[in-house]
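> call design_seq(struct)
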């Protein structure tokens, strides 16, 4: 399982670097996005991945990896929004945003490690296409929870679903890196 931890860290470092560079380009403009907007951005990325997995030809020269990175970063943004709330104007500098990014990435990794222990790394025997389908299922669940104004009766909340999407995306990136 130590390999999983190291591989996870490599993927998150790659995502963090892109997040950091985009913060340098755009600042924290994403802080104005409401959760449904972030969910829709993640949905677009997941749909594109599914399309790439089923189409024989792609018109845009970007593969699944960049879309999985997008899912990870948008999901981490959503976790920050859940934690801090939506604002009318960007309110974070690079250092603050990276601190929040790291905080939520760390919590999400710990969740993965706990589940990975209990499930015996079952994800290693899964297909990337199955991970994509699970992300899409989580997105539909998130949309329903959002439509229910964040209320659930017996189900996990928004944060757990975003964390699962991050972890499934990291697993997919690890698989894609192994192939």
């Amino acid at each position: 399982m130590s390999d999983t931890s190291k591989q996870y860290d490599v993927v998150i470092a790659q995502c963090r670097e892109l997040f950091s560079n985009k913060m340098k380009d755009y600042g924290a403009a994403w802080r104005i996005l409401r959760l449904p907007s972030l969910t829709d951005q993640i949905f677009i990325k997941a749909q594109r991945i599914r399309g790439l997995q089923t189409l024989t030809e792609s018109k845009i020269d970007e593969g699944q990896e960049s879309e999985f990175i997008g899912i990870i970063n948008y999901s981490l943004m959503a976790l920050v929004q859940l934690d801090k709330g939506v604002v009318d104007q960007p309110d974070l500098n690079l250092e603050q945003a990276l601190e929040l990014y790291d905080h939520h990435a760390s919590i999400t990794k710990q969740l993965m490690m706990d589940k990975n222990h209990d499930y015996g790394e079952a994800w290693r025997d899964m297909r990337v296409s199955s991970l994509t389908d699970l992300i899409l299922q989580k997105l539909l669940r998130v949309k329903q929870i959002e439509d229910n104004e964040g209320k659930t009766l017996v189900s996990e909340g928004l944060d757990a679903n975003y964390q699962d999407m991050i972890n499934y995306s990291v697993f997919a990136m690890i698989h894609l890196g192994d192939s």
